[in-house]
Amino acid sequence: MLYLVKLFPEITIKSRPVRRRFIRQLRKNIRAVLLEFDEEVRVTGEWDSLEVETYCTDQGLLHNISNRLSYTPGISQFLEVDKYDLPNMEGIMRLAMQHHAESLRGKTFAVRCKRTGKHVFKSVDVERCVGGELNRCTEALGVKLENPDITVALEIRDDSLFMVKRKIKGLGGFPLGCQDAALSLVSGGFDSSVSSFLGIKRGLQIHYCFFNLGGKAHELAVKEVALYLWMKYHSSHRVKFVSVPFEAVLEEILCKVEDSQMGVILKRMMLRAADQVAARLGVNALVTGDSVAQVSSQTLQNMALIDQVSASLILRPLSTCNKQEIIDIARKIGTEEFSRNVPEYCAAISRKPTTKGKPERIEREEAQFDFKVLELAIEQARFQLITEIEKDFNHVSSDVVVVQDVDTSSTVIDIRHPNDMQISPLNSIRHNEGTDILTIPFYQLRTKFTKLDSTKRYLLYCDKGMMSRLHAAHLQDEGFTNVAVLDLFNKHRS
């Protein structure tokens, strides 16, 4: 299979050195994310577009490759193509007939040709000749230049002809790694997840920093969101997840700070800690999910007060977005249901929070605070590679039974996100007679599992077995002994 990768348009208006640097980075990123599916994948091209060539013929793997390309930052769109040495005009018409004669039956069409290089003919000549031949020699309804049923697309580049079979929309944005790294402050909610994604889309290498106010379960839920974002959108790079134990800091604020000032001071403490975490990572920018006036701590005056304690550049991708816009983006990128089920612990600690904090008042309240508590929290911060989060899941799920084969007495529960189910259905085990498959997304599993037949055994399935292990462990902790994990990923790798 050959893919023709088109660059995000904003890349093409950069200066020649910058454009080449961006393309090199994109080429490197594509190769990194596709090696999992094909170790011999070839990525070539230096200027207008990239060619991605794989000799893989397995339809499931090809689906995964297309899926991964569609979520790689820097790609405007990519085309599934067949490549030929450029023939004469009669040869072009013959190849067009070969590719499209059947699909044009009973439909209107238009021919679109994009040409690069020096040739004796123009693009419009190709469109006219190919269109005329298809109109005469097929059972098409005719040519329709505006809103046709089918667009017959082909590209000519120097001595090569590309017959386009399918166009797939890409993520857009800049290639990951073409900008500096940034530290995203995440809570697992809508705002922090979406702001992290927007930073990734702009080419930032996003690391994650979590301030734990809600215990181990909250931390695992946030790690689940971070892992999802990394696996889907920026797995080409190694990033870190930092967990800062902030329970004692919150307790100190609750005991010593006046109620109305708590929200602003808590945010100031978080930024102080994030500054030091960023310094240890060699990062100069912080990403937050703040949206102007969404909550009391996000008024302009309060945000200015909060920013005073940080030496880092603070990026707020959502600053002018409303909540519905943020939720819409979360739904589009697949984090909506994660976020709906993660409690926002830091959102409601003040009953009557100030919307216009005064510097002198904030300083007076902070003078009551014991900063040794903050220093201790920073010292106890845990730094992990995002790939090491799997170890946390495995620790939680050490007693969970893992199987790699399905027996007819067990029922498989696909707990993946609905988007992933649609892209890569569980066809590999559907042919097994007597095997039942249920689709229950992870965010509905706890409520729906209690209603299932307790006499049956259930095997939880996700792509790589991480999420399924975590949720199986949670179910076992609640007293369910009829649950195990189906791990097809490691089975295929072995």
Put the structure in a nutshell.
This protein has 494 residues and is α/β, with parallel strands linked by helices. Helices cover 42% and strands 21% of the residues.
How many helix segments?
A: 20
Poorly predicted segments? none
Write down the Rg: 27 Å
Shape: globular
User: Number of domains in the coordinates?
Assistant: 3
Main sheet record: 8 strands, mixed
Q: What's the count of strands?
A: 19
Structural class: alpha/beta
**Proportion of residues in helical segments:** 40-55%
Name of the level-1 CATH class of the largest domain: Alpha Beta
* CATH topology title of the largest domain: Rossmann fold
CATH architecture of the largest domain: 3-Layer(aba) Sandwich
CATH superfamily of the largest domain: HUPs
Mean pLDDT: 86
Order of neighbouring strands in the sheet with most strands? 2-3-1-4-8-7-5-6
Distance between the termini: 25 Å
The percentage of residues in β strands lies in 15-25%
Describe the structure.
- By secondary structure, the protein is of the alpha/beta class.
- The protein has 3 domains: 2-172, 2-Layer Sandwich (VC0802-like); 181-391, HUPs (Rossmann fold); 397-493, Rhodanese-like domain (Oxidized Rhodanese, domain 1), CATH 3.40.250.10.
- Helix content is 42%, strand content 21%.
- It is built from 20 helices and 19 strands.
- It has helices spanning 9-12, 16-34, 59-70, 89-100, 123-137, 190-201, 215-233, 247-256, 262-281, 300-307, 323-333, 336-340, 359-366, 371-379, 389-396, 418-423, 427-430, 442-449, 466-477, 488-493, and strands spanning 2-7, 42-44, 49-53, 75-85, 108-116, 142-143, 150-157, 160-172, 181-185, 205-212, 240-245, 285-287, 313-315, 382-385, 402-403, 410-414, 436-439, 457-461, 483-486.
- It has an 8-stranded mixed beta sheet.
- A hairpin with a 2-residue loop joins strand 7 (150-157) and strand 8 (160-172).
- Helix 9 (262-281) runs parallel beside helix 14.
- The longest helix is centred in the middle third of the chain and has 20 residues, at 262-281.
- The radius of gyration is 27 Å and the shape is globular.
- The two termini are 25 Å apart.
- 39% of the residues are buried.
- The mean pLDDT is 86.
